[in-house]
């Protein structure tokens, strides 16, 4: 227990045990359920370039031992991988390592071109993809009136009135007396930003977001000073690349055949999600579901290896 496995023992194409250093343990089957690789920078660069592009600001909510051990073990015995460049990134201003799901609805998200590109309340499951299509980063823009009332519309620890003021004083949040000056600080074209804010303010007056149909949080951006918070999809919530498996969770080899007595489940699997995360419970549910399938099939395989079943 509490020992990191570093090798699978293979005989005649079958997995018959696990090794940890000079210790070997024989078994009838192995289930790899080691999680993802959120804390392995080398693997992030290799298997998830979109996350790697966010630089040093990327961090993972997983435990520190999420190093992709399942990939290492599987590839030693010829396993194939699936889910390259897939995973779930959450948007964050990067002030602190707090789990956040997005930006406040009382702000607007604008690209480097100064244009809105999504509802600020878009599901967290698709937000990183929207960022990718629009330059990989954005600014959350709001005014002093919104900052003063931020605590009445909670959006996470980064977005409290006091914290935003402190970050503006330190320069981590950009602040200016006019939108034109704010655009200069953001190094974006002031004309599109001015047009974006004007259109948004008109929608606020009508009470309808005609661009992206944001259901709540509409408030005009008109009271100086104005603020811009740089935000990026940089919180690793789930890594998508992992061992390819068949419907019975057998790990698939390079010859496209299952590796006898080797199974995988949970985040160690790489063939579960598509380009977008499926939503809340998209990691826990499959871990339980496929964990049960893998456990059942591994038990059957072990019983057959021991001659207890035909």
- What is the CATH architecture descriptor of the largest domain? 3-Layer(bba) Sandwich
Averaged pLDDT: 94
Domain tally: 2
Output the CATH topology of the largest domain.
FAD/NAD(P)-binding domain
Can you summarize the main beta sheet?
6 strands, mixed
Tally of strands: 14
Beta-strand percentage range: 15-25%
List keywords for this structure.
FAD/NAD(P)-binding domain, 9 helices, 310 residues, 29% helix, three-stranded antiparallel β-sheet, Flavocytochrome C3, Chain A, domain 1, six-stranded mixed β-sheet, alpha+beta, 22% strand
Task: Walk me through the structure.
With 310 residues, the chain is α+β, with helices and mostly antiparallel strands. It folds into two domains: 146 residues, FAD/NAD(P)-binding domain, CATH 3.50.50; 144 residues, Alpha-Beta Complex (Flavocytochrome C3, Chain A, domain 1). 29% of the residues lie in helices and 22% in strands. It contains nine helices and 14 strands. Strands 5, 7, 8, 9, 10 and 11 form a six-stranded mixed beta sheet that branches. A three-stranded antiparallel beta sheet has the order 1-2-3, covered by helices on one side. It has a three-stranded mixed beta sheet with strand order 4-14-13, covered by helices on one side. Helix 7 crosses helix 8. The longest helix is centred in the last third of the chain and has 22 residues. The radius of gyration is 24 Å and the shape is elongated. The model has no long low-confidence stretch (mean pLDDT 94).
């Amino acid at each position: 227990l509490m020992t990191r496995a570093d090798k699978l023992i293979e005989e005649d194409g079958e997995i018959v045990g696990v090794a940890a250093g000079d210790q070997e343990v024989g078994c009838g089957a192995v289930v790899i359920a080691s999680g993802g690789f959120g804390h392995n920078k080398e693997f992030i660069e290799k298997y998830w370039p979109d996350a790697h592009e966010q630089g040093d600001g990327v961090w993972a909510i997983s435990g520190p031992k999420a190093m992709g051990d399942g990939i290492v073990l599987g590839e030693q015995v010829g396993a194939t991988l699936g889910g390259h460049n897939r995973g779930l990134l959450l948007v964050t201003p990067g002030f602190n390592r707090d789990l956040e799901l997005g930006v406040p609805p009382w702000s607007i998200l604008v690209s480097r071109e100064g244009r809105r590109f999504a509802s600020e309340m878009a599901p967290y499951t698709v937000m990183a993809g929207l960022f990718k299509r629009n330059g990989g980063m954005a600014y959350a823009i709001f005014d002093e009136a919104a900052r003063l009332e931020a605590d009445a519309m909670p959006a996470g620890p980064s977005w409290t009135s006091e914290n935003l003021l402190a970050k503006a004083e330190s320069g981590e949040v950009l602040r200016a007396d006019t939108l034109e000056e704010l655009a200069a600080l953001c190094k974006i074209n002031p004309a599109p930003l001015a047009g974006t804010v004007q259109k948004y303010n008109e929608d606020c007056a009508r009470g309808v977001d005609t661009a992206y149909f944001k259901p709540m949080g509409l408030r005009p951006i008109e009271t100086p000073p104005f603020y811009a918070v740089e935000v990026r999809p940089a919180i690793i919530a789930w890594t998508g690349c992992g061992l390819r498996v068949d419907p019975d969770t057998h790990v698939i080899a390079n010859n496209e055949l299952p590796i006898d007595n080797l199974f995988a489940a949970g985040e160690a699997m790489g063939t579960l999600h598509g380009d977008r995360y499926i939503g809340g419970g998209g990691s826990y549910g499959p871990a339980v579901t496929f964990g049960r399938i893998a456990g059942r099939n591994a038990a059957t395989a072990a019983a057959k290896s021991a001659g207890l079943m035909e």
